Amino acid sequence: MFSNINAIAVRINRQFLRDRRFLGLSLIVPVLLMLLLKYVLDSLPGLARLGVHISDYAILVAAYLVHFLAYVLSTIVLVRDRKDGTLGRMFVYGYRRREIVLGYVGGYSTIAAVQTALVLILTKYLFDINLAPDLIAVVLTMLALAVVSVGLGVFISNFARNEGQVFPFIPLVIVPTALLSGIAIPIDELPRVLQWCSYLIPLRYAVSVLDGVLNQHRSFFSELGPFLTLVAVGAGLLATASLTLRERE
Amino acid sequence: MSASDPAGAAAGAPAVAIEQLRKSYGPITALDGASISVDTGEIFGLVGPNGAGKTTLIKAICGILKPDSGSVSVLGLDAARERHAVRRRLGYMPQTPALYEDLSPRENLVFFGRGFRTSGLSDRIRDVLEFVELWERRDDPLHNFSGGMKQRASLACALLRDPELLILDEPTAGVDPTLKQNFWRRFRELKERGRTIFVTTNMMDEALHCDRVAVIRAGSVLITETPEAIRARGRTRVTLGLRDGSLREQEVLAYEEEMPRLLAAYGLSDEVARISVRRPSLEDVVLGMIAGDAGAGEKPAHGGAHGGAHGGRTTGAHPGAGADAEDGGNV
Hints:
Distance between the termini of chain B: 34 Å
CATH superfamily of the largest domain in chain B: P-loop containing nucleotide triphosphate hydrolases
Order of helices and strands of chain A: HHHHHHHHHHHH
Oligomer: heterodimer
Largest sheet of chain A: none
CATH class of the largest domain in chain B: Alpha Beta
Largest sheet of chain B: 6 strands, mixed
Radius of gyration of chain B: 22 Å
Mean pLDDT of chain B: 83
Distance between the termini of chain A: 24 Å
Number of strands of chain A: 0
Helix content of chain B: 25-40%
Structural class of chain A: mainly alpha
Number of helices of chain A: 12
Low-confidence stretches of chain B: 1-9, 296-331
Radius of gyration of chain A: 18 Å
Number of domains of chain A: 1
Low-confidence stretches of chain A: none
Mean pLDDT of chain A: 88
Order of helices and strands of chain B: EEEHEEHEHHHEHEHEEHEEHEHE
Number of helices of chain B: 10
Helix content of chain A: over 70%
């Protein structure tokens, strides 16, 4: 099983390295978005007067970016594999569903990890955030979020037959995530129904950990609850993706 | 290629047995009670127009289709319940190359070969890439390849595990005539080594390469017979042009036996019992030109188990022989 998971992850990473344009865009897009964020927030001096600390939001927006990019990327590529027949060929050539799901997670998590590292470095220097004391907590949370995002992408890919059908699913996940994860609006200020709904948003748990350790200066240990929930959501999504990945039409 | 005796299905059991298979996608019926039996060691052709259900049937054999009803047995195993065991013993070439274009043929074969932990994978890769004449291009990414080269790479992938049963979904679609001939020569070599080959096509001339052919239309199998037997069901229109400018037209069932009787009325000796006419097909002539052989059209384009069936346009050389040009178009 591990040999096959590794074979898939290696194959995906090899494809990334061969597709220079795709690789370049995957790395340049988060950089450009972080620069844009910096520019927009700096041009709003009124935020400081309102007592809003821009740096408090930077890492949360960075987490959102990692989530968004990993989710969209894994959904589209898996749908393409299904459409091109390579997914069907994988099944016929001995790969099992759980191996495929975990292999894709392994492969895409590598590029998601690179994107995460890039975003964290930019966050540190653009927003002057000292990540060093909480680096382990931040990195673990971001990586867990990346795995959750890929698991979500694999699961969503079951519902699309081609790349075009993926697009309606992008706002379906991304807009509620932006509104209900606690990035834009504190969850406590949402109506009770939406507060319940926010438990379904994986990013909520990552935001809770990152906000706790970086902005509220709490220890990672005290944020273990949401962190473990994030990990459990990831495990649940991967299990669901493994069970629902269509092997037979 | 390494040759290992196929541990096929039980003696006498068909390599593939499909009974009353039905499959619908919403309101569209893809398979409507299709039944097929493929003998071990034969080249079996499934012929039909686009959308007739050929690919759906192939997916059922490979265990990547969930039929609504009916049964599929492959090499004595249930293709649904024992699909993993079935897949270990077959090679599958989909209609599209279904390989990763960013990767080279070798990288693709390494990846797909690892699924079942193919033993001696490096040697096998060399064998199959040499077999499809891609060894020299083994490290070039597939996106630099022509359509025919991608098909060859896909065939190499299907042959990688030296399977007992080879499932080929329109393997020659979009390939040039020379390559098409090469493919069929290779399929016959595999058959001679005891492999069973199930191939779909919508090209009638290709059906003549098969030992038996099933004709499928709208998800139902209309007939399963040898190509010769199917061919014998057709009538031949004979037109005699007389010196006075008039024409005599008649349809005959058995052309070669009927022709002497027809011509006897115009003085043909009763010593003549059969008449056979052999003309090269357009494909033979074109291939001869490509090969620089002016006379290529006058002789079989290549030899092999089917003799005249692969050669020129033959009419009545012997029962059932002959890949007539008029049979060569799409269904």
